[in-house]
């Protein structure tokens, strides 16, 4: 499974995730980047409130949608990353360059939303062309 995800993220970090809305309890799907840092997967953002983060703090279950090549849904869980060393490893990784162009590293380390995504299972999407 990690090989599939790594291959998908190798040239484009863009995925979709579906979370459960805090108030609505309805599925919420958004496009976002997921970073592969040494075989571990992270979602981050620039400092500030994020609906996706609020949703994951209320219910850490999510679906990761690989939509470019693999056309696969992955059940996953998220947990907030508060450990400063891990935050630094992620936010200084080459794949996080864009974020460092938006805010100083110190601001990102202190304030950026950051979760680690743990993949649970691999479930292929129905392919209409199959």
Structure description:
The structure is a single chain. Residues 125-130 have low confidence and may be disordered. With 130 residues, this protein is α+β, with helices and mostly antiparallel strands. It has helices spanning 2-9, 51-58, 84-91, 97-102, 105-111; strands at residues 14-20, 27-33, 35-37, 40-44, 61-66, 72-80, 114-124. The chain has one domain: Pnp Oxidase, Chain A (Roll), CATH 2.30.110. Strands 2-1-5-6-7-4-3 form a seven-stranded antiparallel β-sheet, sandwiched between helices. A hairpin with a 5-residue loop joins β5 (61-66) and β6. Helix content is 28%, strand content 37%. The two termini are 21 Å apart.
- State the major sheet: 7 strands, antiparallel
Q: How much of the residues is beta strand, in percent?
A: 35-45%
Mean pLDDT: 90
Order of helices and strands: HEEEEHEEHHHE
CATH class: Mainly Beta
Fraction of helical residues: 25-40%
The domain count comes to 1
User: Compute the gyration radius: what is it?
Assistant: 15 Å
Q: Report the CATH topology name.
A: Pnp Oxidase, Chain A
């Amino acid at each position: 499974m990690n090989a599939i995800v790594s291959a998908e993220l190798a040239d484009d970090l863009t995925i979709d995730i579906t979370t459960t809305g805090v108030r609505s309890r309805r599925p919420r799907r958004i496009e976002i980047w997921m970073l592969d840092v040494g075989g571990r997967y992270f979602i981050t953002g620039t400092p500030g409130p994020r609906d996706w983060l609020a949703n994951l703090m209320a219910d850490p279950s999510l679906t990761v949608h690989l939509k470019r090549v693999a056309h696969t849904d992955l059940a996953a869980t998220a947990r907030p990353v508060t450990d400063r060393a891990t935050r630094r490893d992620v936010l200084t990784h080459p794949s996080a360059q864009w974020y460092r162009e938006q805010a100083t590293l110190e601001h990102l380390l202190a304030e950026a939303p950051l979760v680690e995504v743990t993949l649970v299972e691999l479930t292929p999407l129905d392919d209409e062309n199959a």
